[in-house]
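Re: 5-O-phosphono-beta-D-ribofuranosylamine structure - here you go.
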Amino acid sequence: MNRVLGVLVSGRGSNLQAIIDAIGAGRLDARIGLVVSNRPGAQGLERAGRAGIETLVVDHRSFPSREAFDLTVVRELKQRGVGLVCLAGFMRLLSPAFVQAFPNAILNVHPALLPAFPGLEAQHQAWEHGVKISGATVHLVTNELDAGPIVLQAAVPVLDDDTAESLAARILAEEHRIYPEAIRIVLEGRWRLEGRRFLSR
Ligand code: GRF
């Protein structure tokens, strides 16, 4: 797999920052070819700009359909030679057309131990449910939301005096640790899928 990353953000971009920092520190041998945001004001755009990375706003509100938006993003990524797409707080569902354009080459980070608590506000869902352990998951993206093969997970204990926010902060620290590591493993290429099991040598 080629080592050009395309990172998709919608907001804060702290996972994007973790990827930028891992590359800068030599822990991840990759280059970010493009950062795309569907929101014009996303903080992730500033982070990319500061790191000298090309950015692009593709505002979903100016497209007639999800597919039209997705195909524009796919075209821009392909034009920059992107081999691996990293969703980093990207708040849009991907259409099958997008997923097909990057088969087994899209990663997402999710703030819970999937398959528990998919969807929005996973940290709050876990806290409210009363689980004693939650965590973070990096997975390959398929057509089903938050359901693709799992590359890496990290467990985070839920403490009695946690709020949803304090739990989210500890989970986020684990996201920042495992996302660049999962990208490294996927780029290395020494992995295979057995059913939905991601196995690396
Ligand atoms: C993270 O918690 C990530 O797991 C979820 O959205 C959040 C994005 O945060 N998908 P950031 O934009 O990377 O700071």
